[in-house]
Specification:
With 125 residues, this protein is mainly β. It has one domain: Sandwich (Immunoglobulin-like), CATH 2.60.40. The protein is built from no helices and nine strands. The strands form two sheets. Strands 2, 4, 5, 6, 8 and 9 form a six-stranded mixed sheet that branches. A three-stranded antiparallel sheet has the order 1-3-7, with no helix packed on it. The termini are far apart.
Protein backbone atom coordinates (compact mmCIF):
# COMPACT_ATOMS: atom_id res chain seq x y z
CA UNK A 1 0.00 0.00 0.00
CA UNK A 2 1.40 3.34 -1.03
CA UNK A 3 2.14 5.98 1.53
CA UNK A 4 3.53 8.79 -0.61
CA UNK A 5 3.94 7.65 -4.24
CA UNK A 6 0.60 6.06 -5.11
CA UNK A 7 0.27 4.36 -8.49
CA UNK A 8 -3.18 5.52 -9.54
CA UNK A 9 -3.29 4.13 -13.07
CA UNK A 10 -1.44 1.90 -15.51
CA UNK A 11 -2.48 2.62 -19.08
CA UNK A 12 -1.67 -0.09 -21.63
CA UNK A 13 -3.66 -2.16 -24.10
CA UNK A 14 -5.48 -5.23 -22.79
CA UNK A 15 -3.96 -7.24 -25.64
CA UNK A 16 -1.34 -6.94 -28.37
CA UNK A 17 0.01 -8.99 -31.26
CA UNK A 18 3.43 -10.62 -30.91
CA UNK A 19 6.16 -8.30 -32.21
CA UNK A 20 4.05 -5.14 -31.92
CA UNK A 21 5.00 -2.09 -29.86
CA UNK A 22 3.12 -1.79 -26.56
CA UNK A 23 2.98 1.74 -25.11
CA UNK A 24 2.74 2.03 -21.33
CA UNK A 25 1.84 5.04 -19.21
CA UNK A 26 2.03 5.01 -15.41
CA UNK A 27 0.43 7.74 -13.28
CA UNK A 28 1.74 8.35 -9.77
CA UNK A 29 0.12 10.66 -7.24
CA UNK A 30 1.98 12.55 -4.53
CA UNK A 31 0.04 11.93 -1.30
CA UNK A 32 2.25 14.29 0.72
CA UNK A 33 1.94 17.99 1.52
CA UNK A 34 5.43 18.83 0.17
CA UNK A 35 7.20 18.49 -3.16
CA UNK A 36 8.79 15.07 -3.68
CA UNK A 37 10.86 13.40 -6.39
CA UNK A 38 9.30 10.27 -7.91
CA UNK A 39 10.59 7.53 -10.19
CA UNK A 40 9.07 4.38 -11.65
CA UNK A 41 10.27 1.08 -13.02
CA UNK A 42 8.32 -1.76 -14.61
CA UNK A 43 8.99 -5.35 -15.59
CA UNK A 44 7.27 -7.64 -18.03
CA UNK A 45 7.65 -10.98 -16.31
CA UNK A 46 6.23 -14.30 -17.43
CA UNK A 47 7.82 -17.74 -17.89
CA UNK A 48 11.05 -16.94 -19.64
CA UNK A 49 10.26 -13.33 -20.54
CA UNK A 50 12.00 -10.58 -18.57
CA UNK A 51 11.80 -7.04 -20.00
CA UNK A 52 12.56 -3.97 -17.88
CA UNK A 53 11.04 -0.55 -18.54
CA UNK A 54 12.99 2.32 -16.97
CA UNK A 55 10.81 5.23 -18.17
CA UNK A 56 13.81 7.12 -19.50
CA UNK A 57 15.82 6.69 -16.27
CA UNK A 58 14.31 9.93 -15.05
CA UNK A 59 12.78 11.24 -11.89
CA UNK A 60 10.18 13.98 -11.66
CA UNK A 61 9.53 16.58 -8.98
CA UNK A 62 5.85 16.39 -8.08
CA UNK A 63 3.93 19.02 -6.14
CA UNK A 64 1.69 18.29 -3.16
CA UNK A 65 -1.25 16.03 -4.11
CA UNK A 66 -0.36 16.30 -7.82
CA UNK A 67 0.00 13.46 -10.32
CA UNK A 68 2.86 12.75 -12.72
CA UNK A 69 2.98 10.43 -15.75
CA UNK A 70 5.85 8.22 -16.86
CA UNK A 71 5.82 6.62 -20.33
CA UNK A 72 7.78 3.83 -22.00
CA UNK A 73 7.18 0.91 -24.36
CA UNK A 74 8.19 -2.67 -25.08
CA UNK A 75 7.80 -5.22 -27.86
CA UNK A 76 5.08 -7.78 -27.18
CA UNK A 77 6.49 -11.30 -26.83
CA UNK A 78 4.70 -14.37 -28.17
CA UNK A 79 2.73 -14.98 -24.97
CA UNK A 80 0.41 -13.31 -22.51
CA UNK A 81 2.42 -11.33 -19.93
CA UNK A 82 2.06 -9.58 -16.60
CA UNK A 83 3.34 -5.99 -16.37
CA UNK A 84 4.48 -5.08 -12.84
CA UNK A 85 5.07 -1.42 -11.95
CA UNK A 86 6.84 -0.02 -8.87
CA UNK A 87 6.93 3.58 -7.64
CA UNK A 88 9.74 5.17 -5.64
CA UNK A 89 10.27 8.46 -3.84
CA UNK A 90 13.52 10.18 -2.85
CA UNK A 91 13.90 10.74 0.90
CA UNK A 92 16.99 12.93 0.55
CA UNK A 93 19.55 10.13 0.70
CA UNK A 94 18.05 7.08 -1.05
CA UNK A 95 15.17 5.90 -3.24
CA UNK A 96 12.36 4.27 -1.24
CA UNK A 97 10.07 1.71 -2.93
CA UNK A 98 6.52 2.74 -2.10
CA UNK A 99 3.85 1.09 -4.25
CA UNK A 100 3.41 -1.71 -6.77
CA UNK A 101 0.63 -2.78 -9.10
CA UNK A 102 0.26 -5.00 -12.13
CA UNK A 103 -1.89 -5.57 -15.18
CA UNK A 104 -2.06 -8.52 -17.56
CA UNK A 105 -1.62 -8.00 -21.30
CA UNK A 106 -3.01 -10.84 -23.40
CA UNK A 107 -1.40 -12.11 -26.57
CA UNK A 108 -3.67 -11.08 -29.43
CA UNK A 109 -3.90 -13.85 -32.00
CA UNK A 110 -5.05 -12.76 -35.40
CA UNK A 111 -7.10 -15.15 -37.47
CA UNK A 112 -6.23 -15.14 -41.15
CA UNK A 113 -9.16 -14.47 -43.44
CA UNK A 114 -9.80 -16.49 -46.57
CA UNK A 115 -9.16 -14.30 -49.59
CA UNK A 116 -10.29 -16.81 -52.20
CA UNK A 117 -8.20 -18.54 -54.81
CA UNK A 118 -7.61 -18.41 -58.50
CA UNK A 119 -6.28 -20.84 -61.04
CA UNK A 120 -3.43 -19.18 -62.82
CA UNK A 121 -2.93 -21.72 -65.62
CA UNK A 122 -3.74 -25.31 -66.34
CA UNK A 123 -2.90 -27.98 -68.83
CA UNK A 124 -5.54 -30.13 -70.45
CA UNK A 125 -4.60 -33.81 -70.48
Amino acid sequence: MATLAEITRIIAPASAEAGKRVDVEVRIRNNHYTHLYFAAIASVIDSGVNITLRFGNKSEEVGPFATVSFTDHFTMPDKTVRLWVWSFYWNGTTWIEDDSKYIDIALEVTTPTFQGFAIGEYTKV
